Structures are given as C-alpha cells and as structure tokens.
Amino acid sequence: MGKDNDPRQGASAVLILRLLQERPMYGYLIAKELVKRSEGYFDFKEGSLYPALHKLEREGLIRGEWQVVEQGPSRKYYHLTDKGQRALKESAKEWLAFSERLAQFLGHNEPQPAAGGVS
At what angle do helices 12-22 and 27-37 cross, to 10 degrees? Predict the structure, then answer.
C-alpha cells in the first residue's frame, strides 16, 4: 500500500481533536505530540497537518486564535469547540469499532509493530 492509501491520513482529524481535548496547542506542538505519543507512527508533515487543521477550523470543530509570545513569532493556538467535542466522541467510537473489526477480520488480536511515519 502506497502513501496515498495510508490509513493514518484518515485518522488525522480524530488524533488532532483528541490532543486539543486536553489543551489548546499550536501546529508545531500538535505535530510533536503526535510523534511522541505514537512513538513515531503518526509523523504528519506540514503538507498534511496544516490542511487538516484548516479543514477542522472551517467545519467549526476547532477555532484558531493568534497569541503573541514573548520570544519568537506569534502562534496560532487551536481550541476544541463544543461541536468538535461531540465529533471527537463519535469519531473515537467509530475508529475503535473499525479497528476492532479489522483486527478480528485479519485474525490479529495483538498489536503489530509500527511502520514508518506519514509524510
């Protein structure tokens, strides 16, 4: 399966919403947290992360707010909206059901080793 068919791309929204459920974050921090928490499995580059953030913002699931920081350039922090919270709850349920059924179908009940990151 090539990069264009990588299932990790489809999971970007639920991953981003889940992180923002904890606290507001800016894009670079979101990317770093995804890599850290997934041990490198979810490694979204700017070319896929920022379009995903803009789409979530257009859909009203997150809202961006520019904040001035003492050192360095201003950063756009993303916040989870109430609509985003509801979408996260539904998406998480759907992804859990999907992953359980897929593992069952493939005859695997144990986690498999991680493959390379998403670009």
Answer: 100
Residue 111 is assigned to a structural domain of this protein: no
Element (H, E) at 9: helix 7-10
Q: How many structural domains does the chain have? A: 1
Using CB atoms within 10 Å of the CB of residue 63, give its burial: 0 to 12 exposed, 13 to 18 middle, 19+ buried. Answer: middle
Domain that holds residue 64: 6-106
Instruction: Give the domain CATH number at 82.
Output: 1.10.10.10
DSSP character for 40? T
Q: What is the pLDDT of residue 106?
A: 92
Matching residue, tokens 């999907």: 98
pTM: 0.81
Q: Is 16 exposed, middle or buried (0-12, 13-18, 19+ CB in 10 A)?
A: buried
Mean pLDDT, consecutive 10-residue segments, the chain of 119 residues? 57 95 97 96 89 96 94 94 97 92 84 55
